[in-house]
Specification:
Number of strands of chain A: 11
Oligomer: heterodimer
Structural class of chain B: mainly beta
Largest sheet of chain A: 7 strands, mixed
Order of helices and strands of chain B: EEEEEEEEEEE
Radius of gyration of chain B: 13 Å
Number of strands of chain B: 11
């Protein structure tokens, strides 16, 4: 058990709907990451927080995507007006910064119909 | 920039050794990692190596790093059926994130 938990595990939605995912990192970790993984690919970086500050965003993160970490603990990732191309596994990871070892949650599998 | 490449598929008999290879492009990478992913699960950190090291051994796992060729390998000794998974290498470079390869599927044949 890595200690990073994500909710929900699975989400099925219709195109055009909004969805929100939650990530609870390991409690003492100040860094939190969101990655996206599609079938047959490795995880692709989306965004990164140090405490509550969002320090980096990938060009993959279109205007329809927004992530927050309001109190420097849990984080949410919202996708507005979902498209079929958003279907993927959304992975959250946290790190204490030492050796930058990332510990991943089990992910949220999103299917957009 | 960051670009990590891996071969796609490896089958190995139980008890044999398996070797997974990876190449990376960012010569400024400080740490390199191996992760394991089982079906429907997140990624599990297996081991990592600092860029000033050539080799690291951790129980059945041996990591070899050739900085000159930007080549990283993972050797699993006495491969078990529970080792069947997808293995990802990843590099950390100047920014605070990891770049992953596409993964290498390992299938262990009993």
């Amino acid at each position: 058990d890595t200690g990073v938990s994500q909710d929900p595990r699975h989400k099925i939605t219709k195109r055009g709907q909004n969805v929100t995912f939650r990530c609870d990192p390991i409690s003492e970790h100040n860094r939190l990451y969101w990655y996206r993984q599609t079938l047959g690919q490795g995880p692709e970086f989306l965004t990164y927080f140090q405490n509550e500050a969002q320090l980096e965003k990938s060009r993959l993160l279109s205007d329809r995507f927004s992530a927050e970490r309001p109190k420097g603990s849990f984080s949410t990732l919202e996708i507005q007006r979902t498209e079929q191309g958003d279907s993927a596994m959304y992975l959250c990871a946290s790190s204490s910064g030492v050796n930058e070892k990332l510990f991943f949650g089990s992910g949220t599998q999103l299917s957009v119909l | 920039g960051e670009d990590v490449e891996q071969s796609l598929f490896l089958s190995v008999r139980e008890g044999d050794s398996s070797v997974i290879n990876c190449t990376y492009t960012d010569s400024s990478s400080t740490y390199l990692y191996w992760y394991k992913q089982e079906p429907g699960a997140g990624l599990q950190l297996l081991t990592y190596i600092f860029s000033n090291m050539d080799m690291k051994q951790d129980q059945r796992l041996t990591v070899l790093l050739n900085k000159k060729d930007k080549h990283l390998s993972l050797r699993i000794a006495d491969t078990q059926t529970g080792d069947s998974a997808i293995y990802f290498c990843a590099e950390r470079s100047g920014n605070n994130r990891l770049a992953f390869g596409k993964g290498n599927q390992v299938v262990v044949i009993p």
